[in-house]
C-alpha cells in the first residue's frame, strides 16, 4: 500500500495527503469489497475462499466484475505493484476476476 501511495504522489506536483487521497479516489483505487469473509469459494463451493483466511482482497467490484469477457478499470501499474510484493491476481482465472488480489499463487 505504501508503494501505491508513493506512485500516486509521484503523479502529482508537491501533493498533500488529501491530494493523494483525492487522486486515488478519482481512479477508485480506494474502494474495496473487503478482505476477510468466511465463505465458500465461488468456483468450488467444496473449498473455502481465500477470503476466509484473510489473504485475498477485492477492489472496486462494481467496475471490475468477475465475468467473461474480462472488463477492468484497475490500471496495470496497480497490479504490477501487487505482483512485485508476492501477490497474484484474478485476471488469469478461468472466469476472470480482476477485482481480486491474493497472497497465494496456487489457487
TrEMBL record:
Coiled coil: none
The Peptidase M15C domain, residue ranges: 45-102
Gene3D superfamilies the UniProt entry points to: 3.30.1380.10
Domain of life: Bacteria
Name this protein carries in UniProt: M15 family metallopeptidase
Organism expressing this protein natively: Mucilaginibacter pankratovii
Taxonomic lineage: Bacteria, Pseudomonadati, Bacteroidota, Sphingobacteriia, Sphingobacteriales
Amino acid at each position: 500500500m505504501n508503494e501505491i501511495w508513493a506512485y500516486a504522489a509521484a503523479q502529482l506536483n508537491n501533493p498533500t495527503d488529501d491530494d493523494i487521497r483525492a487522486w486515488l479516489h478519482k481512479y477508485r483505487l480506494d474502494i474495496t469489497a473487503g478482505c476477510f469473509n468466511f465463505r465458500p469459494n465461488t468456483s468450488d463451493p467444496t473449498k473455502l475462499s481465500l477470503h476466509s483466511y484473510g489473504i485475498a482482497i477485492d477492489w472496486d467490484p462494481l467496475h471490475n466484475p468477475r465475468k467473461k469477457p474480462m472488463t477492468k478499470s484497475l490500471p496495470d501499474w496497480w497490479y504490477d505493484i501487487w505482483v512485485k510484493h508476492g501477490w497474484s491476481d484474478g485476471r488469469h482465472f478461468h472466469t476472470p476476476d480482476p477485482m481480486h488480489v491474493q497472497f497465494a499463487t496456487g489457487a
